[in-house]
Amino acid sequence: RDPAGAAEVFAVDVGTNNGVRDGMAVCSGRTIVGRIYRAGRTVSLVVGVRHPMFRVPVVVESGGDKGVAWGTGIGLEVRFVPIEAEISAGGAVVSSDDNADVPSRFLIGRVSDCKRDPVRLLWIIQVAPAPGTRNCEDLYIPLNWVGPAPVYVPKELR
Question: I need a labelling partner for 109 at 20 to 30 A (CA). Which of 11, 48, 70, 153 fits?
Fold first, then answer.
């Protein structure tokens, strides 16, 4: 166990000279394995999905409810999902389209445990990271991911 998440930090040999910037997703296949924490000119630091600095907007597919995947140092949890949502163990947790630096519908993991918190009126959702999020060799950073289209707000509503 590594509660500080130090094992979840690694370097990749690309940086701002290659179009990489802080916050971009690092992927293996259709799975997100981390995010760029600091992009240097030729080398960037990546925090893996279990690292306490990892955060990404997600959708719990069983009910289509949105939350935020949050690294805990030893695993992942999804926070800010309302208690009314229908959540069940085994459901896929995928990236949402709410972040321009992260491609949507990429796998993060699967719900391993869930219970309702009646005090905060939210779910407590534990997530087992997708297999292969450690010891990956074939990584890529989607550089030309455009992200969600900007929302049009009429002038009279601004």
Answer: 11
